[in-house]
Write a structure and sequence with these properties.
The protein is an alpha/beta fold. Helices cover about 30% and strands about 10% of the residues.
Length: about 170
């Protein structure tokens, strides 16, 4: 009871679950779509949407990389397209590219809708092509913004094969 005589009921303190993001690379687009539909609570398809919406996403609401080699021919490699995606997501460049979709993605992240999810991608990017997809960049961005970690992130610094520099992505050492 408090001093006024009213009964005080304390709410139990809920423990915060640490945010962990995982990227799973599958064999093809069809397998990725099936996996996302089979486990909507634990996984998210991070491909661009098809018009059918079978992937569980729409053209306006999806986590895909807008920087395709067809629409941005000057971004002629996977690392360049991933870097463009990172800048777009962070709002530091490409601000005129699909701003409504970018805002939707940020809203999903900030609402915790991607917390502790497995981000599903359709292939593994070979090291010769940078070894990193936009799904990896998205996982890092989510972990950094939500104060979490990326499952399977390297524990020791790795050198960038092109620049020979050692650095840190938002939540992943590289």
């Amino acid at each position: 009871e408090d001093p006024s005589g009213d009964l005080v009921v304390e709410k139990p303190v809920e423990e915060e679950v640490p945010v962990t993001i995982k990227v799973q690379n599958l064999k093809n687009v069809g397998e990725t779509n099936k996996a996302a539909l089979a486990d909507p609570e634990g996984s998210v398809n991070v491909l661009r949407s098809t018009s059918s919406g079978r992937s569980g996403m729409t053209r306006e609401k999806n986590y895909g990389n807008p920087f395709t080699q067809w629409h941005f021919p000057d971004l002629d490699s996977v690392p360049k397209r991933v870097k463009a995606f990172e800048a777009w997501l962070a709002g530091t460049d490409y601000k005129n590219v699909e701003p409504k979709r970018r805002n939707w993605i940020l809203e999903q992240i900030d609402a915790g809708n991607l917390d502790n999810k497995t981000l599903l991608y359709y292939k593994t990017i070979p090291k010769s092509e940078g070894g990193r997809s936009h799904a990896d960049a998205l996982a890092d961005f989510i972990a950094d913004r939500r104060g979490g970690t990326v499952e399977g992130a390297p524990k020791t610094p790795l050198k960038d094969t092109k620049t020979k520099k050692t650095g840190i992505y938002p939540s992943r050492i590289i």
